[in-house]
Every structure is written in C-alpha cells, then in structure tokens.
Please model this.
Amino acid sequence: MTLLARTADRLHWAARYLERAEDSARVLRSFGELFADFPASGLRWGSLVAVAGSDARVEPVDGSDDNPVAHFLIADRDHPNSIAMTVERSRENLRTCREVLPREAWRTINDLSIFVRGAAPTSIDVRRRERFLDRVIDDSRRLDGVLQVSMTRDEAYEIWRLGRYIERADMTTRVLGVRAANLLALPPGVSDEFGEVQWMGVLRSLSALQMFQRATRGPIDGPSVVRFLLFDDRFPRSVAGCLSEIRSSVLRLPAYGEVLAAVETVDAELRRCRPTADDGVELDASMDRLQLALAALERVMHEQYVEH
Amino acid sequence: MDELLDDEGRPRDVAAALYRFFDEIGVDELRERQRSCDLEILTMGISFTVYSDGQNIDRSWPFDVVPRMIPGDEWERVERGLIQRLRAINQFIDDIYNEQRIIEAGVFPAELLDDSTNFRPECRGVRPKYGVWAHISGSDLVRGGDGTLYVLEDNLRVPSGVSYMLENRVVSKRVLPELFETYDVRPVDAYTDELNRILSSLAPEGRPDPTIVVLTPGVFNSAYFEHSFLAQRMGAELVEGADLVVGDDDCVYMTTIDGRARVDVIYRRLDDLFLDPEVFREDSMLGVRGLMRAWKAGNVAIANAPGAGMADDKVVYAWVPDIIRFYLDEEPLIANVPTYRCMYDDERDHVLAHLDELVLKPANESGGYGIVIGDRATPEELEEAAQAVRADPRNWVAQPILELSTAPTLVDDGDEPIEGRHLDLRPFILSGRHSYVTAGGLTRVALGKGSLVVNSSQGGGSKDTWIVDDSATAGMWGDWSAP
Model:
C-alpha cells in the first residue's frame, strides 16, 4: 500500500498533537492530586507552563479555582499547545487522512473534538477539570484501541505510531527537565525539602507511580525515578520504552537507513545520561541533549519521507 | 402537487404505511428521531463547507427525517431515460471534439461553440476510451405540477452530492429502523463500487491493476468532505495537485514516502481551467503541470474528461432532445423543460414579452446564481434582466416557471409539524464500459415555506430518497414519466 508523502506528514502530526493533548491532560490531572498533599506556597503552577513547552508569562493564582494557568493549558485558543488547540489540530490533520484510517478512527477524534470545543471553556474549575481530563485521556486511548484492532499494519500505521512515541518520549524528557530546573532554582544550601513528594509528582504526571513501585521496591528517590523513566524499557512511557517502539516502526518503513541512524543517535544520548539527579545540573543538560536528538530524528524523518 | 399526499391531503398508497407509523409514534417522538439524526450527523462529521464573511465554515449537513418515496416501476423508466440521455450526450461530446457530424447535418449550430465558456479547443481530436467524456454526471430532476418528471439540467463537470445521498441512508437506517422492515427500499450503497469499476475500466492499456486517485482542490473546497469520502470508499488516494507530477515520459506520478508511484486514473474534482497551468490558467496552484500532455498521450485517464462541460450549458441543454434523436434515433424517455433560446430572434421576442412569467437563466452559471424568477422579480430587476438578454442573447435561456412538487417535511416554522416543502432530485449516472444509475439520488428540499431554493449553501436541506418496490404501489401515479 502506498502512502502519500503529504498524508504521512499530516498523519504524523495528528498523532503527535493527540499524544500531546493526552500527555498534558495526564500532567494536569496529577497536578490536581498533588495540590492535596502540598503546602500551597511550595507548589508552582509555573512548572506546568514549562512542561507545556511555553515560556509565556501566565500570572499564577495559587490554589484558586479560577486559575489562569489551567485556562492557559486547557482552553486558551491563542496557546497552540493548550488541550483545546492540540485536539483541534489533531482533528484538522486527521480530516485530511481519512482515507488511510478505519472509519471508526475519525468518529473517535471527531467526537473528542466536539466534546472539547464545548467543554474546555467550562472545565477550568477544579471540580469539573478532572472529568474533562479523564475524557481527553480516555478518547485518546480509545483511538489507539480502534487502530490496534482494526487497522492494517501498513506504512500509515507505523507513521502514526512514530508520532505517538516521539511525542511521548519528548514529554518524558520535558517533565524530567522541569524537575531538574526546579532543583537548580533552589538557593544554595537549601535542601530539597519536599523532594520525595516532588519526585512522586513526576511519576504521577507520567502515570508511572504504580509501575515504578512495582519495578523498584524501595523509597522514592531521585536517582531511581530518573533511572526508571529513562532506562526501564518495559515501561511504555520511559524514553527507552518509546525508543524501542520507534525502532520497530522505523524498521517497517521503506528506505529507513538515515532514519534508523537518527534513532541510534537518540539511543546513544540516552545511554550517556547519568541518573545522578541530586543537583539537577547533569539531569538538566542530559534532557536538553535528548530533546535535541529527538528533534533531529523528527527532521531526518521529514527529509526522508515528506520533502524528497 | 404533493408526492405523498393526494389533493384531499390523504396519504397516497406508497405513503400509507409511513403515515400509520407517524400516527403510532406521534410528533414528539418524530422530533426526537430528528434530533437523533442531527446528532448522528454531527458525530459522523458529515459536513459541508460554506464561505461566508471571509471565512470557511464547516457546517453540519442538513437532513430531514421524513423520507421521500418514489415507486420502483416509475424509477425504472427514469433510469432508462437517464441512461439514454447520457449515451446521447457522450456521443455528442465525442462528435463535437472530433468529426462534428451533428454540425454538418445542420442539427446543431456551429456558432454555439465559438463563445461557449466550456468548449475546450485544446481537446479537439482526443478520443477517450469507449467514447465517453462525462463518466460521472448528476442530472437534476424536478416534478412539475402535473407530476411529470423533467430533467432540469445536466451536471457534467464535477457534480457533487453523492456522498450525502449515501450518508443520508446510513442515518435513516439507524433512526427509522421500523420503516425499513415495512418497506422494500432499494439499497444505494453499490455506488462507490460501481464508480470504482467504471474508473478502473478507464485505465490505459497494459495497466491491469490501475492506481486510481481522487484529485481535490483541497480542504477548503465546499465538497472536500465528499472527495475524502469517495477516496475512503474506493480505497483510492486522495491527492492534491502538489502531490502529482508529470515525468519526462509524460506519465503521471504521485509523491509517496517511498518515492514516485505511477497514477493511471484521476477522478478529478477540480474545474477544467485549474487542471493544468501549462494549458489553461497559468496561475492555477491546484493543478498539475503537463497533465493535459499525459492525458492526450493516453498515459492517464481523467474523469470527467477535460472539455466534457461543453454539453453542460443551459443553451446546449435545449438541444438535448434533438441530440438524442440524432445519435440514437430514439425519442427522449424523460422530458426536457421547454426552453426558449434567446439567440434566436423569435424566441427572444417571446421571452422579452413574457419575462414576468418565465425563469431566466444564464447559460453557464451553477449553484442557482444569476437566475431571475419572473413572478418574484421587481420591475427594476426585470428591466435589468431584459437589458442583459439584449446585450448578450447567446448567454440566456428562459423556461416556464414550474410548480415544483412538494413532499411532507418536519418543520419548525409551519402551522403543522409536518408540511409540504418543494424539492428536487439529483440521481448520479455513471458511464463507461457500462452504465449505472443510483437507486434514487440526492433529494434536496427547500426548507422555507413556499421557497424554491434547495441549495444547501442557501438554506436548503436534504432527505433520504427511497425507491420503493411494492406491487401494491405499482402504477398508482399513472404513467407520468412518458413525455
């Protein structure tokens, strides 16, 4: 089966945007839970804005129900990475790829997009937020379920998976990167007072807490969290787990030589990372390098499959 | 006249069971079903795009829950008439671009070609397979006051609507399952398969497993939904001009993730003039440079063939009965609406003297634009129209104002919950190695009381069209379709 270069591009971005919406929803949901365990003064909504990859200055109102950060991340139509906009952009891209996907897939994204358009503006409030985020995550998963059981394993399927896993790996590095930045921001001599809770928050925001605990019996500390999220390839949101999925999809595409080389570069960067998370310097630099390698992979794919 | 109710307002035979069903469930439940339709259409993402206030707006497809019914025996005559009509029209187009026998015989005036906007001299001498130029057409049918079905126009360029016909059926099956048990309704979903077969049959020689693509102007086109739909249903690629390239070998290729792949058949949903900037509009960003070269070399089939629209001209329309007689030596099975051609002095004089009783139509507009309805126009508008006719007589025809038939429709603004609304019908006719007519077609309905405008961009709706087979209904409307 052939796949148009332009369709491949749109499909890839449809997958990335939907994964971005889902991952942001996971992060936001875990933040909601974290509030309950945390002294209000110690928690920075600003970190969330950073995880979303934005340096916008959103005036935070800590603990308030009418929260501009939550609005920025959920409903803001001027913020390209808000959940409302990523779902919309995923739908717009998928609308032009319907001929390569099972019919039910379109119905799922269309359904989600209708829901988000209606509900996003009223889901900032903490009491409604949770249900909204659950629905975004569930529908995103539902779409992969549809593809899982009803889509031929053709090039379009692999391109879709690549979009999902590249975005997911990227999100894991960003969550870790922001944690590193928080550590760096501590005044000299001040200990990481809520460290354990913070690291637990990292795990939660990647929906990884329970799986971490099953894999790592023992207390939650920085190095083991970093080790788990980077290297445990049995866990599907770890960078190593994403990379192994990426590699298996790349191998099923035509003329993958240079793309595979770019995957191996990401892998080499991953292996250089040291899980010495204590001061944040090393972690911060490693996550930057990983993100650059992922961006390079994205570029090589584009050159190989879209531009040529 | 109403198609489902007689002059006393009693259901005709074909509608008896429908009205029993409405009585049984009541109006509230019927409205509930209408809401289910709307919701279904929204989640299925059945939409059309309108351009308004400088923006492209994606609107949900408007659909009326009450089906329109046509008895099977009447439909069979319509089918035969449409196939006859398209056979003759295709022979006519092929003749015009080649020998021009019909002109030589004095049946069709040569001067009509000189200022025809859709005649393409670039296509002279081309001989598409089977002599067919208009592979996909969507003739608009209307029923007059006496029940006669007329062809109102032949859409031979890029007629749209078939996807909505198919989706309407999906929706009504889900929402009115009981009625499908009562009625023997002919299925419609063979269309995309038939289309696929027709398109495959057009492939160049020596291409046994042809690659078919649907060429769309892009996501901003009002019929993009349909372009995507047809590609999905045929397993074809949906391409834009930028995805295609004509190689040094004059073959057409599409750009895939694995390099170039040969394309054999293009179902284009793009106007002639945008197809190839090398031959037509130089500024076209939507077309493919060299496409006409590839087509003339026989390396790719294009459906509909470039130039097919020359017969889709409201002046040429007036000649279709003669065209049928000339090529087939048969009498037309479906009537033409009587048409006055302003290019002839006597017919123009009649038109100018009776403007307020006629519908005045420009030769080459579509979508209802430029039409003047005599009895609804102001004196100023009529004077303006008369001037336009005098200035460019070739470009105008006039027809009597038809009393379009109505069918019961669920309305919000009426005296009754269900009232008659005017409608038309667009069946789709496929021509190639074989011919095929859809079972029914797309019914469009003017939702406003008394309105005659059925276009969805101007407040029109649609209905599922049921061709009903039932011996009890046979012949109940008399022999209307015979001219």
